[in-house]
Amino acid sequence: MLVVKKFGGTSVANKERIYNVANRCIKDYKEGKDVVIVLSAMGKQTDVLIDLAKDISDNPSKREMDMLLTTGEQTSVALMAMALNALGVPAVSLNAFQVAMHTTSAYSNARLKRIDTERIRHELDQRRIVVVTGFQGVNKYDDFTTLGRGGSDTTAVALAASLHADSCEIFTDVDGVYTADPRVVKNARKMKEITYDEMLDLATLGAGVLHNRSVELAKKYGVQLVVRSSLTEAEGTVVKEVVKVERMLVSGIAADKNVTRISMIGLADKPGVAFRVFDALAQANINVDMILQSIGRDNTKDISFTIPRDATDEALKVLEDNKERLTCQEIKCKDTVAKVSIVGAGMMSNPGVAAKMFECLFNSNININMISTSEIRVTVLIDETEVEKAMNAIHDAFGLED
Amino acid sequence: MLVVKKFGGTSVANKERIYNVANRCIKDYKEGKDVVIVLSAMGKQTDVLIDLAKDISDNPSKREMDMLLTTGEQTSVALMAMALNALGVPAVSLNAFQVAMHTTSAYSNARLKRIDTERIRHELDQRRIVVVTGFQGVNKYDDFTTLGRGGSDTTAVALAASLHADSCEIFTDVDGVYTADPRVVKNARKMKEITYDEMLDLATLGAGVLHNRSVELAKKYGVQLVVRSSLTEAEGTVVKEVVKVERMLVSGIAADKNVTRISMIGLADKPGVAFRVFDALAQANINVDMILQSIGRDNTKDISFTIPRDATDEALKVLEDNKERLTCQEIKCKDTVAKVSIVGAGMMSNPGVAAKMFECLFNSNININMISTSEIRVTVLIDETEVEKAMNAIHDAFGLED
Q1: Distance from CA of B42 to the nearest CA of A (A)
Q2: Cβ–Cβ contact A292 with B under 8 A
Q3: Nearest residue in B to A142, CA atom
Q4: Which of A116, A230, B313, B401 has an alpha carbon within 20 to 30 A of B259's alpha carbon?
């Protein structure tokens, strides 16, 4: 039995927490399991290092930035190995060079290509706990790289896949994946199980527990993920391919307030116009999400779409600059909207799910601005002041508290 | 033309100093030289990391300690490369893995075995300044090691030897090697040149500018060392095999107050007694330096010797414990003594040098306790209150200010 256990920066922020993690891992070790620990840098250490670099240079090279940042995880793994040793358990820390975590060459945003397992296997065979640096890799030039946001989760999942681990536990500051954000929906329920696709939709939609890339990787290699709390012994949520036979129609609700709706009014109704709009935004690296196209007056059409709220100013600038070329009469912008989504693998075979959601919102007197759907997800755009009311109403309507 | 330039922790302790070093190195680069920079960890960073480890464990494993400490130099080289980049010069930082600095496996006190130069050569060929971590290496297990005290000097010299560098500059907080400590002897003179052997004797005797091991290595591989200030542009002292043909008899004077004299009175005058004394001390890892044996009363002998002052308590304990076995009647100890030495390759062929030193001390009314000599060195043990007077008198007697 081999387990990979990943702890984030807050879980190793000080001596007390390092020992807390060490003790948890020793429990598994004493049950006879092979234990691999993946760690992030301690607390705010990565931010401290970034500030150090920014003090030296306004625009430090990404290659040197990664060289600098990787010292963060190396520090935490060395200290964790010392703590495990102090508790009488043999342990060894390894960085990306020592494991040999091969990545693409893109500094600051590399992707894992291949992980050598020989050294880790060797250490596990000596009955040592192996403590591995998350977030970092080595590229073909023998340079350090980092994996970008959520990188340590990705390291853990990739290690679990390479080592054929029996389980990959991701420890966070919440104790699992909930049917809705417990701070918003009082009777939100922690899920015992969820499929990769549901988790992916929830992650993308802002549930914020696991990073997409790690879930995609887990799905690809069939790694069973467990999301659980680093503070309590609660069981957590298992993310895996097939869950129980009788599925809930809807497994969770997510909300995302980082949304602005932009409407382009009176566009010429001829081919290529929509393409030009989205091409201009794509070139400015702005992600467009929900899209609604409708017939306007006098042979024109209107296009509405949503973008991340923090890209509002830049998007408006791009569109205003191209207003004439885009044949647009008026640009409207509303940044007080929010997305609310229901996710559930059971929806696929139940066409009534979306209708039930709309009916529930109608009964609560909530106006729907836009709608988008996928096989396992229905998303509506509503006014952001109504998010709480909507989430609670939907949670009740689908009986998620049971 | 290839130069290796080594800067210690104080030289890179903050942004201003990092830029100061960067600018100095860019000057060489712009003259067309290939430049390799070797750095220690910033300021007191190594002490900070040691404290972090001691907080986690009273007795951290040396392997994990080295894993932790090596983050210190990695941080400074990354920041230095950023500073060089910010000044418009291409630069790349490399750690012990990337260079491939092979060492023995002894954690915390490893010795360099071999340095691969391929990566560094490749980077230099691209006209990049290469910034290398000092003090660290990688052993046959692919683990980080550190080189112990003065380790970064050793890294610099070994790199210079491997790369066949034209010169290896060691930047310190003094601007060269002096004929005597300038704080003690007012008219001490900075030497332009000195041989490896003279430097070794001065280093061992407490001149404290360069670490022995780096001088030994430089001698072995014929690396021309330059000791110079990181704060001023002064020329510094060149350490090399052969210096000018007409040599000074004496090139420098060193003093060392870390000395205690111990006398064993009334030892049985039979074979093996002296051996037993020094064997007992060796087993306690205590270094014995000057030794004087004399005939005592009634078929006994007395042995006096010096040890480092900080080992006094331990040495006395070892000797007292073995007093009977050593057939010793009395143990005397004096910890207010000091060694004063004159060093100079010219002494070898000038037997009058020692006599001149003794005469000079006699004229100054300074009592000599013990004497020890080598081919290029004469050391006397005197009362520590007379060190300043002795050094100035000898400095004048040999005309070292000229």
Answers
A1: 12
A2: no
A3: B98
A4: B401
Give CA–CA dist B184/B388, Å, rounded. 6
pLDDT tens for the 402 residues of chain B, in order: 999 999 999 999 999 999 999 999 999 999 999 999 999 999 999 999 999 999 999 999 999 999 999 999 999 999 999 999 999 999 999 999 999 999 999 999 899 999 999 999 999 999 999 999 999 999 999 999 999 878 999 999 999 999 999 999 999 888 888 888 888 888 888 888 888 988 888 877 766 678 888 999 999 999 999 999 888 888 899 998 876 644 567 888 999 998 999 998 888 887 778 788 888 888 888 888 888 877 777 788 888 899 999 889 999 999 998 888 888 889 999 999 999 999 987 777 777 888 889 989 999 999 998 888 877 888 999 999 999 999 999 999 988 887
The strand pairing partners of B381, in sequence order, are B339, B370
CB within 8 Å: A57 and B82:
yes
* Plot region of A66 (φ>0 → left; ψ -120 to 50 → alpha; else → beta): alpha
| B65, closest residue in chain A (CA to CA) | A78
ipTM of the complex, rounded to two decimals: 0.78
Among B64, B82, B83, whose Cβ lies nearest the Cβ of A82? Answer: B64
A155 touches chain B (CB under 8 A): no
Number of H helices and number of E strands within chain B? 12, 20
Contact A82 B58 (CB under 8 A): no
Q: Are A22 and A54 in contact (CB under 8 A)?
A: no
Cβ–Cβ of B65/A78 closer than 8 Å? yes
A16 touches chain B (CB under 8 A): no
Distances (CA, A) of B152 to B144, B211, B327: 15, 10, 46
Which residue from A3, A4, A1, A6 is spatially nearest to A229, judged by alpha carbons?
Answer: A6
Nearest C-alpha in B relative to A65: B78
Instruction: Give the chain B residue nearest A48 (alpha carbons).
Output: B75
Show the tokens assigned to B300: 């006994």
B79 and A56 Cβ atoms separated by less than 8 Å: yes
**Chosen from B19, B55, B75, B108 to mutate, greatest number of chain A CBs within 10 A:** B75
Contacts of B19 (CB under 8 A, 6+ apart): B83, B87
Inspect the interface and report whether the beta carbons of B74 and A71 lie closer than 8 Å.
yes
In this prediction, residue B294 carries a pLDDT of 78
- Radius of gyration, alpha carbons of chain A: 24
**Chain B residue with minimal CA distance to A139?**
B98
Q: pLDDT digits over A41-62, tens only?
A: 999 999 999 999 999 999 999 9
Q: Is A298 exposed, middle or buried (0-12, 13-18, 19+ CB in 10 A)?
A: exposed
**B88 is written with which tokens?**
């418009």
- pLDDT for B188 equals 87
Residues B197, B247: contact at Cβ < 8 Å?
Answer: no
C-alpha–C-alpha distance, residues A56 and B255, integer Å: 41
Token couple for B9:
């922790």
- Those residues whose C-beta lies under 8 Å from the C-beta of residue B85, and which sit 6 or more positions away, are A57, A60, A61, A64, B91
Give yes or no for A70 touching B (CB within 8 A).
yes
**Residues whose CB falls within 8 Å of the CB of residue A87, separated by 6 or more in sequence, listed in order:** A19, A22, A23, A26
Question: Helix crossing, B45-56 with A15-30: angle to 10°?
Answer: 50
Classify A42 as helix, strand or coil: coil
Establish if A108 touches chain B: CB-CB under 8 angstroms: no
Structural contact between residues A316 and A331, judged by C-beta atoms closer than 8 angstroms: yes
B143 touches chain A (CB under 8 A): yes
Interchain CB contact of A74 with B (< 8 Å): yes
What residues in A contact B57, CB-CB < 8 Å? 82-83, 85-86
Mean pLDDT, range A24-50, rounded to an integer: 96
